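I am sending you the entry underneath: sequence plus fold tokens. Let me know what the token row says about the fold:
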Amino acid sequence: MNLSMIETRLGNLFKNSREAGKKGLPVLSVTMNSGIVNRETLSRKMAPDLPPEKSLLVRSGDIVYNMMRMWQGAVAVVKQDGLVSPAYVVCRPNGDIDSQFAYYFLKTPAMLHKLKSYSYGITGDRLRLYYKDFAAIPVQIPPLETQKLISGLISTWDEAINQTRKLIFQKKDQKKALMQQLLMGKSRLPGFMKKKGREAHRFFDLPIDWACPSLREIAKERSERNKGNGKATVLSCSKHKGFVESSQYFGKKVFSEDTSNYKIIRRGWFGYPSNHIEEGSIGLVSEHDAGIVSPIYTVFECSEKVVPEYLYAVFKTETFRHIFSISTNSSVDRRGSLRWREFSLIRVPLPGIDEQQAISNVLAEADREIADMERQLKFIEKQKRGLMQKLLTGEVRVKP
């Protein structure tokens, strides 16, 4: 044992608080990655709020965990007084442990493994960690003053991570606004405006020197099959990343051995699952020379009048997600699918080929900037994990 570390059990560091809630306080929820948040900010469907007196009161500095997901890291340190579900466990620290240190400590891989081993349930997805079992877990922690130094150091990295995330969020918002302006011709790049004025169409208005063709005028459906069940990469379309390898996307093989009826899709072609396009699931093949997709996909190729990356950006706007939703709801297909016959009637904004390419280049540069920032975020997060491992296990000592 490291002589500077203190051997104890979690029950000696926390007491289980079952203090009843009070009126006028916000209802809070524990999340896996964002700590504890105001419940009304969550987008997922939630059970109705309980009366305050049937909720648990949490105070600033408390540690709260979801007993069914504690072994996965569903734990948070409370920053403001509030109310939580009685299904949560509220741990009030005594004077021997720093709350922020405890939060970081409980999220380490070694502690998550130990928390899981003390959880009970019939199956893995029903494991629960009750307070009595939480309290029995043996731990080694540094003295309180050292805990505060460690939590302060890690908090500095958290601030850098949060700031980088905010910048990425802002950059993505800026790109969305830029897309709406450029792809609808509300802002024109230098040298492309030939005539002033705009013309109204069903869902949008466009510059009068832009065309607005239907997709059937600029694209053709492709239904080439994987005859002979040839070996090919099976692709799936995701809402945010476009086409990805199916096995990587789902984490397992979800397609059949016989892929002879699958459709071939080539670089520069588009595809979408006919029953999910209203959610924005449409992709452009850009990372593979060719692949195959499920028979439920509609596959099409654009004419030489269209820059594929430009059209893909158009499809990814909120305007077109709305158009896809309306078109699906009005489709004659009773299964809620949008087949090529109806899809090809949709009209799209189309400037000249040079302006399409210029717009695509601007948006691609914005994507590169976002990708650079996301790589920087991953680098900082990796550094933080390494720092936490060394500090929280005592591998690296800090002195008051």
